[in-house]
Amino acid sequence: MTLIDSSENRKKLSHIYNEIAKELFGVGTTMLKVSIDHSVITIHAKHRRSPRSNALEDEAPALKYEVDYHMSVIYKRKIRERLEQELGLSIEVVLRDYDPPTQRAITNVILHETE
């Protein structure tokens, strides 16, 4: 499966990604860039630091790291569900890496190849 690289598709993907950020963290992203290359969608995002995150970082850094990990897992599940439901995409895998110190995340959505 491929997704056409158009401004309309990038806008839809950005909207869905940002809505999930608002659902999970109460705020959207400060930077969001989407690129589509055949069957791979890449989303570069810079998230806002939440006050809770700052408090955990100061008081319980190991717990903050664990929370960041689990939030990333939830994010991947939610983005997969929303992209499949709203855009009808057939997703093979969602890969996401999040760097807590910079609040940056890169999400790769790999679509099933059609033969």
Write the layout of secondary structure elements.
Elements: H1 7-25, E1 29-37, E2 40-47, H2 51-59, H3 61-87, E3 91-99, E4 104-111
Antiparallel strand pairs: 1-2, 2-4, 3-4
Helix pairs in contact: 1-3, 2-3
Measured between the Cα atoms of the first and last residue, the distance is 8 Å
Secondary structure: helix percent: 40-55%
User: Major sheet: order of its strands?
Assistant: 1-2-4-3
Topology order in helix (H) and strand (E) letters: HEEHHEE
Describe the structure in brief.
Helix content is 48%, strand content 30%. The chain is an alpha+beta fold.
What does the model show?
This protein is an alpha+beta fold. The protein is 48% helix and 30% strand. It is built from three helices and four strands. It has helices at residues 7-25, 51-59, 61-87; strands spanning 29-37, 40-47, 91-99, 104-111. A four-stranded antiparallel beta sheet has the order 1-2-4-3, with helices on one face. A hairpin with a 4-residue loop joins strand 3 (91-99) and strand 4. Helix 1 crosses helix 3. The N and C termini lie close together (8 Å). 15% of the residues are buried. The model has no long low-confidence stretch (mean pLDDT 89).
